[in-house]
Design brief:
about 325 residues, mainly alpha, Hypothetical protein af1432, 15 helices
Length: about 325
């Protein structure tokens, strides 16, 4: 019970922060959580001791979770711009922060409809992901080492957004034209990916968590989640391109998708569809006996191209991005 009361945080945050923190700090020693410092009594000596001892087991009380996340958000620009922090450490801090924000967002919409304030928090996540990827071309590989494969809706939404933004930027770099990739375009796709499955909050959990194959009737209910999602998003005053991500992400180029069966799928939505499929395939599910490898997942995407369901150029670019040109299918 006590383990769930505390949240592990990276000590690096306290070292590089230019702002004072406003939550208590705990250490885990001798199987106990011990109060190390409060915002009022934290001194340079406390900080130097942490650095000297290389202590990694720093925690906060879960009651301070929202305060802590606000602290991380304020410091993220400094973290991502720092030359003294490794790419992996930046990716880890950003990924962990993003998971918490999206989890809180999805928990909140179960109680009330999202609003413009909720949207702004998602935009901050996407802007920081863009900064990480724009400054570090190898960032996607660092993120991939962190990506959680246990399927939770908030994890899947973050993963899909990361893959979508990375694919968009990677594919753009591979194109010969000199047209600048607008940050606003990245933002729309990134937020669209974060929201793409928001409508699943209206689907019965017994269906979403079913360990076996869905019945035709159950699958028909699941297929309604894009429509539910668009209805929920109307309270956030989304741009049309973002709403399209929510509504059309399960559509296919051969018309076999849902909910409308359209073949006229906006290009930016096709980016999310590739990212969504890859993460869904590689996530661990109760009904799967074996984990699907990256190689096998990329082969499945290639088969979808052969069937005329996914865009060939986008999938080829995604494969090169994930494999760093080590895999050719």
């Amino acid at each position: 019970m006590i383990e769930n009361q505390y949240l592990h945080i990276p000590p690096l945050l306290l070292v590089i922060s230019e702002q004072k923190f406003d939550f208590d700090i705990y250490l885990f020693q001798d199987n106990n959580y011990i109060l190390y410092a409060t915002p009022k009594n934290f001194t340079e000596e406390h900080l130097e001791r942490l650095i000297a001892n290389g202590i990694g087991n720093i925690y906060i009380d879960n009651k301070d979770k929202l305060t802590y996340e606000a602290f991380v958000q304020r410091n993220l620009p400094v973290i991502l711009d720092s030359q003294n922090i490794s790419l992996y450490e930046k990716a880890e801090i950003l990924y962990d922060h993003s998971l918490v924000v999206v989890e809180n967002f999805l928990n909140q919409i179960n109680k009330d409809y999202p609003n413009s304030e909720s949207y702004d928090k998602l935009v901050h996540i996407v802007d920081n992901i863009y900064t990480l990827f724009d400054n570090n071309q190898g960032a996607v590989q660092s993120i991939r080492n962190l990506i959680a494969t246990n399927y939770k809706e908030y994890i899947h939404c973050i993963n899909t957004s990361l893959y979508s933004i990375s694919l968009l930027m990677h594919h753009h770099r591979e194109q010969s034209d000199s047209q600048i990739l607008r940050k606003s375009t990245v933002r729309q796709i990134g937020v669209g990916a974060l929201l793409h499955d928001i409508g699943k909050s209206k689907i019965r959990q017994s269906i979403l968590e079913k360990p076996g194959v869905l019945t035709p009737k159950e699958f028909e209910e699941v297929k309604k989640h894009p429509i539910h999602g668009v209805e929920m998003c109307q309270y956030m005053d989304l741009e049309q391109s973002v709403a399209q991500c929510v509504l059309f992400h399960h559509e296919k180029l051969d018309g076999s998708g849902y909910p409308t069966g359209t073949r006229n799928i906006p290009r930016h939505v096709q980016v999310i569809t590739v990212a969504d499929m890859f993460d869904a395939i590689t996530c661990e599910r109760p009904y799967r006996k074996h984990k699907v490898t990256t190689f096998d997942a990329l082969k499945i995407l290639s088969k979808e191209v052969e069937r005329g369901r996914l865009d060939q150029e986008l999938v080829a670019s995604f494969i090169r991005m994930i494999s760093q040109d080590a895999i050719r299918l």
